[in-house]
Specification:
alpha+beta, disordered C terminus, 3-stranded mixed β-sheet, 4-stranded antiparallel β-sheet, 13 helices
């Protein structure tokens, strides 16, 4: 095999930032259509329950859509039906155009249920499906016949009926047709979307995983495609080798790191950003931060999510956000939204990497002002 092309770190960062659309301020425009485009470019947008500041899915979209409104995501999910919720490496918003690549997985969950709902009774699901078909979509709040059971997993107690809802969701009988805060409304997937597309083949699914990563990452590796796993499957490795022989993919390394990456010839021509450096306050669940090894390699920044670290052992803070200025991560801010007082509190401010007050403080403060306005915008309502 030809010796891999060696990229400098600045070149590699430019490719990844362009793929993530963090190298321009308004890459998708605004409105529900911008939300659809952003989710399609990123492949998926992770959902998380923590709301010390705005929840991860809204935060990730705001980072790329300056005029983003929470109602844009509601319309994309419930009215336009251009995005849907399903499991990637975590619960996430996924483009509806990608639904064929998840249908086979949904079928597998019917016969191989996940541990979260393994004890759900299939007969209870049939009963619930009949109820929804007759009476319409429901949320967990509509089920008041169950008592909470003792906590048996790390995330808190669940009603038995919620297990049935999850069984229906993961097995593809139900879809989440609306989300208000973290309260989900479940609808028959066939009624929400109409006739479902044909399931993709295993080969098509492998090609999808590869193309999704190439679009959103620019430079890919085994860990970045298979996250949280670390290696390509044999089938994916064959597809990569086929594309490499056709010169549709080129092997590259980054700096002194020997990890083999791949990129399309077009991705290597990522444009130089124009204008002054852009500042982005990133969610710890942002695609640029969620893969810690990759973030460390590209930016020399080792992010530690300390929400689950005992307070006495935290280095940066409970919910620390990396701050990107241009192509460098320059700070880590532990922020908290005081919604009663109507302001964002800076719990801690740490300079990292090449970050320093003389060069970066003014631009960070400007971005913090914009970030605070989003946190406390007119659309915000408690629990949203």
């Amino acid at each position: 095999m030809k010796k891999p092309l060696n990229l400098t770190l600045p070149h590699a960062r430019r490719i990844w930032l362009h793929a993530q659309r963090l190298d321009e301020r308004e890459p998708f425009g605004a409105g529900p259509e911008a939300t659809r485009q952003a989710v399609e470019q990123l492949g998926y947008v992770q959902i998380d329950t923590i709301n010390v500041i705005e929840r991860a899915h809204h935060h990730i979209l705001f980072t790329r859509i300056p005029n983003y409104r929470r109602s844009d995501l509601t319309q994309a999910q419930s009215v336009d039906k251009s995005v849907f919720e399903y499991w990637t490496h975590a619960l996430a918003y996924v483009p509806v155009r990608d639904l064929p690549f998840y249908i086979d997985e949904m079928k597998q969950h019917r016969s191989e249920p996940m541990r979260w709902y393994a004890d759900a009774d299939p007969n209870d699901l049939k009963k619930l499906l009949r109820q929804i078909k007759k009476d319409g979509a429901i949320s967990i709040r509509d089920i008041d016949t169950d008592e909470l059971v003792e906590k048996d997993h790390p995330w808190g107690s669940r009603k038995p009926s919620k297990r049935v809802l999850q069984y229906g969701f993961f097995s593809g009988e139900l879809t989440i047709s609306e989300r208000i805060g973290m309260v989900k409304t479940y609808e028959l997937i066939s009624r929400h979307f109409g006739k479902l597309p044909q399931a993709a083949t295993s080969r098509q699914i492998d090609a999808y995983l590869l193309d999704r990563a190439l679009t959103s990452q620019g430079l890919i590796s085994g860990p970045s495609v298979m996250h949280p796993k670390l290696r390509f499957t044999p089938e994916l490795a064959k597809q990569i080798e086929t594309r490499r022989r056709k010169k549709a993919l080129l092997p590259v390394t980054i700096g002194d790191d020997p990890t083999l990456h791949y990129a399309t010839p077009e991705a290597l021509e990522a444009p130089e950003p124009k204008g002054p450096p852009l500042v982005h306050i990133l969610s710890p669940f942002d695609p640029l931060a969620i893969q810690r090894r990759r973030t460390s390699l590209f930016f020399g920044y080792d992010h530690v999510f300390e929400a689950y670290v005992p307070k006495a052992k935290r280095k940066f803070g409970y919910f620390t956000l990396p701050v990107l200025a241009g192509d460098e991560i320059v700070a880590a801010l532990d922020l908290k939204t005081d919604r009663a007082a109507g302001k964002v509190l800076i719990q801690a401010w740490h300079w990292v990497g090449k970050g320093n007050a003389a060069e970066h403080k003014a631009m960070l403060e400007d971005e913090l002002g914009r970030f605070e306005r989003f946190q406390l915008g007119e659309e915000f309502t408690p629990g949203s």
